[in-house]
Queue: 2 jobs
Job 1
Amino acid sequence: MSSTKLILQSSPHLRDDDSVRRIMLTVLIALAPATVASVLMFGTRAVVVLVLAVLGCLAFEAIALKIMKKPLMPYLTDGSAVVTGILLAMNLPSGLPWWMVLVGALVAVVLGKQVYGGIGSNPFNPALVARVFLFISFPTAMTTWPVPGSDLFGMGADVATAATPLGVLKTDGLAALMSSDSNLYMNLLTGHVGGCLGETSAIALILGGLFLLLRKVISWEIPVTFIGTVFAFTGVFYLVDSSTYADPLFQILSGGVMLGAIFMATDMVTTPVTRKGMLLFGFGCGLITGVIRLLGSYPEGVSFSILIMNGFTPLIDRYITPAPFEDKGGELQAP
Amino acid sequence: MSKLAELTKGLWKENPVFRLLLGMCPTLAVTTEVVSGIGMGLSATFVLVMANLVVSSMRNVIPAKTRLPIFIVIIATFVTIVDLVMNAYAHDVHKSLGIFIPLIVVNCVILGRAEAFASKRPVFDSILDGLGMGLGFTLGLVALATVREILGNGTWFGMPVTGEGYTPFLLFVLPPGAFISLGFLLAGMNSIENRRKAHG
């Protein structure tokens, strides 16, 4: 008898050297331009929010792991808490009271992630869960936007505040928006507008998105269909009545569309795994965002749209499954 | 099971809110403040005791095939009494509970006890069961309402408890806050229960 053993192993059989840590590091690098842009626009307040959110996420992750009697390593150092922290900060206004940032970190890590069993098991994007929790709990504080570029080194509570372009559009109408800023589109691109830390510079966010695409951490389907659907949906309204509805270019550059489409709706854990599923996911996000913005009572709907589609993800993955050894041009291929 | 155990099982071991997870609709809906929680809990307790009493004493004459509609008619009778009495003597609570008072008719704690307990057991046991379950239900509602009223409004029984500088978490008086609070209370109860079991 030969002593050679037949080794049986379950899938996956194809592996590469990707690890959670490596992916998280790539995401952090991709977030760097937008983070720098937010600090340039909002100064020390942005730094405070960023630092508190990241440290808060790390601390609450450690406490949650301790309470659930799980090992601290490798969960604490895999970088996921840091990414959640930065994404959370990106979703908050820079003038938010410090303790609300910590509450957000607690909600993101505990309610958004650890109650479901930790990384990889959460159905909803943790940073968005925290953002919506804060938004519904503290509507005033979460919609008080410091003016970018003003009082860069200030720490106190008194800073000039202004509405976001989407807020102006919702409450005062299109004419007020257009007359409020003569250089609106340039400012939207560079980030010189009011909003959350990460709702500012479209250029910085797109740069990060291109880097993620290049490193194959995300694929094009969700961002493109998300942004495309917002563009198309708002475009139809603009064509019908251009005196009430803002043009589609403004719609995709303002608010959280870029941040959401590139960094939040592409989260591997909470979005579909198949290409068709991703197309559907992106379309749904774009449609819900458009509906909330144009027909709803809130000025912005990106975070709600992504959370709602997160809820649909298991259903999408259940019904859109790739056929194994799909017939491609008469030749059998591995999926 | 001793008579005392029939009474006390509803408080913790078979608590309708935290252990049996029955009657979730009023549990989640009326616990925005402690006062309405108590109002709902005591109304349900009265209906439970009376429905258990009547169902148990009629258990030998109710035909098995039509028992559910008969239970519902019995329960609805007592709910109507609660509805009218409350409207007359506790009008404010009645107004704040609104539709949830008539809805006690379909509260599954009450139908559940009629079906699972009162229709099979002697009258006195059924009264004790109804009383224990009702008080357990009230306890559950008060616990949940305490968390939600303090966090979401900064008050307890309408009295301010958190001091001037507190910014209430609006979310906790809204429906998502009910689910989140209930989830954490359940987790806490389960954790205590597991520890008790582990230590014998």
Job 2
Amino acid sequence: MTEGAPTAPVCVLFVLALEKYMSVENPELLKTPLFSLHEELGAKMVPFAGYAMPVQYPLGVLGEHNHTRAAAGLFEVSHMGQVILKGTDVDKWLESLIPGDIIDLKENHIRYSMFTNEHGGILDDLMITKRKDDLFLVVNAACKAQDIAHMQKHLPDNITLTELTNRALVALQGPKAAEVLSRFAPNADKMDFMSYQEVQICGATCFISRSGYTGEDGHEISIPADKADEVCRALLNEEEVAAIGLGARDSLRLEAGLCLYGHDLTPDTTPIEASLLWSISKRRRAEGGFPGDKIILEQIAHKNHTKKRVGILPTGRAPAREGTVILNSEGMELGKITSGGYGPTYGGPVAMGYVKTEFATIDTEIFLDLRGKKRPAHVVKTPFVPQRYYRKNLK
Amino acid sequence: MTTYYSEEHEWVTIEGNNGTVGITNYAQNALGDIVFIEVPEVGSSHAKGDEVAVVESVKAASEIFALIGGEVTAINEALEEDPALVNAQAETDGWFYKVALSNVQELEGLMDADGYKAFIATLD
């Protein structure tokens, strides 16, 4: 979704100046319910989508990344939007704005989908939970105002939209995460991947979802704002848990092959071009009925899209950052890297980007223009690090 | 043997007409975990201010501009396999390259150790 560390090439002096400038003295920035906890933990705070957010703690990006893969990491993502939609036929109505299947989604289960525009381009990606009486949406921080306006514009009289501004959102991720959470919410570790329940933690009603943005097992936890500090201190008090910043969140999701909105997904990319066909069910492919359906369904049927998102493995050790131009052997431009960096668990540079569809086949040799040098790379399958989601039926 | 420092957080240790170049401990700390370093080729020449190296940390790519001009006579090959050496030993084993100075006068305007220490104190 929308987290990220700075990626553009900059000189050392500029990094230093930037960090000084970004030391969050800006009074315009919004503070999340965990702001003072982050400061207490020694976080480096940066402005992100209008909020002061922790990019890293004293452990550092690499250490935080590795800790999450080895044990459990706690991430604050309260800057993201939490929205409730309620009313008659709300499932059917939401389907008019997204290609995801909500009618057939089971109660207390979660689906990943995206808002599309009339050209089939992606306006935002989001998570939708079907609850007993309503739908619970989590949308990206940078897009939430636009998403809410978009929904309100199309909202019928019988459906209400409520933004939950009084709730914090955190993610507890890693191989030990479910075990830790089950100490506070019994049975949290028995939930299936992409399922939901309401639990009491420290006397607060929390919404827990077995999902995340790291490729690891774990939960996202929505907490009443006034209890967020207490709940997070309790979680951090468990020996397996460390606080993790947005820097490691970005390298974790990149290794897991997960898209970052605004980078890997934009209004100029369709779900098919973005290799997200799996998120559109058979029924929705047959029926359409969402913005840009004609274009998207035609891309599914005739594979007439000209670009496709692929995993890219640079040869050697030099990371290829966002914006790096992708070339064929003759030097013709094939597209650009949209996310790239060093994968600490993979142990080398990893990236994703868009190439012309005829170059999107796995193992195709491509080249990257790295500061004027043409360096070889290959199109590869993602994820770069195997996902370790909890699947009940496999146990 | 004298070491000079630049406001861009590089150091050069001078022995006769030859210099050994690296980035400072302050710089490595600000950059965070370093994962890749591109150093200039042996035999290549550059002028003061040219881009000579690239340091990639988990956070960002940073270009390194030459604090003195000259011809590169050696590179630190250990950095290819172990770029994190710069995090551990920025001002000793984590040197980048050695250079035969083209103009010793270029050292004027650089800081000595005390001057650099005072300079970074103004940054925090």
